[in-house]
């Protein structure tokens, strides 16, 4: 995944010294806040190379919640546009070099008690919602677009005779779920897939598929996406 470009030494030299000192102070304060978060919640491990901007996220952590944030995970410094809620005994893993992009819409990651969400390395979560009551697993370099939602459960009982049902969701390596897509419980999207805007994914999609519609269905082939960057 192509992270936001780092400033060159020439660019940094154009920034007034007082501004650079202020930015360093903000970053130091944010690092201290992340340190306190990890001390208060021993199950939280944030790689020191991850963005200090994670400090301004909205964190809700239940007892025995486990969170692992990998190296070079980045997000914008936009207070509370990133929401991370991990319930009692639940687990969240965010792989190295993942971008939790909040510029367009909020990113919300909700892991209910006892559930697990895994975002593979080089993921691109762009203004989306991930919700797990069982398991949601995203592979290597998976993109989820603005307004898209991934659910592994009905979220509520349907009626007195039909209780809420939960089934794991898996999205394979190098797949792109575009904007305003809803992925429902029990779905497996194969690797190297593209799911078109405003689709409703309620059944499995085989690898290397272009899929769209409501319900989403395979409409054509997709080649190797391993060299494609956001």
Summarize the structure in words.
This protein has 230 residues and is mainly beta. It has one domain: Hexapeptide repeat proteins (UDP N-Acetylglucosamine Acyltransferase, domain 1). The protein has two helices and 22 strands. The strands form three sheets. Strands 4-7-10-13-16-19-21-22 form an eight-stranded mixed beta sheet, with no helix packed on it. It has a seven-stranded parallel beta sheet with strand order 1-3-6-9-12-15-18. The termini are close together. The mean pLDDT is 94.
Itemize the secondary structure elements and their pairings.
Elements: H1 9-13, H2 17-40, E1 44-46, E2 58-61, E3 66-69, E4 74-75, E5 82-86, E6 91-94, E7 99-101, E8 107-111, E9 116-119, E10 124-126, E11 129-132, E12 135-138, E13 143-144, E14 149-151, E15 169-171, E16 176-177, E17 182-183, E18 188-189, E19 194-195, E20 200-201, E21 209-213, E22 216-221
Parallel strand pairs: 1-3, 2-5, 3-6, 4-7, 5-8, 6-9, 7-10, 8-11, 9-12, 10-13, 11-14, 12-15, 13-16, 14-17, 15-18, 16-19, 17-20, 19-21
Antiparallel strand pairs: 21-22
């Amino acid at each position: 995944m192509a992270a936001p470009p780092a400033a060159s030494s020439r660019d940094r030299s154009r920034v007034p010294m007082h501004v650079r000192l202020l930015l360093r102070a903000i970053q130091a304060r944010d690092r201290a806040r992340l340190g306190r978060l990890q001390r208060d919640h021993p199950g939280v491990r944030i790689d020191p190379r991850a963005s200090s901007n994670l400090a301004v996220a909205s964190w809700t952590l239940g007892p025995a919640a486990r969170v692992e944030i990998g190296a070079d995970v980045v997000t914008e410094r936009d207070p509370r546009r990133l929401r991370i809620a991990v319930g009692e005994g639940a687990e969240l893993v965010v792989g190295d070099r993942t971008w939790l992009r909040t510029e367009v819409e909020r990113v919300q990651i909700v892991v209910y008690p006892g559930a697990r969400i895994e975002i593979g390395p080089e993921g691109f979560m762009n203004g989306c919602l991930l919700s797990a009551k069982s398991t949601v697993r995203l592979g290597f370099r998976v993109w989820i677009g603005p307004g898209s939602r991934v659910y592994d459960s009905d979220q509520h009982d349907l009626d007195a005779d039909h209780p809420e049902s939960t089934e794991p969701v898996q999205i394979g390596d190098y797949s792109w779920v575009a904007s305003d897509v809803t992925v429902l419980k029990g779905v497996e999207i194969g690797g190297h897939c593209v799911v078109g805007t405003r689709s409703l994914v309620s059944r499995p999609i085989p690898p290397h598929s272009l899929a769209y519609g409501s319900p989403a269905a395979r409409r054509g082939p997709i080649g190797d996406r391993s060299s494609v960057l956001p």
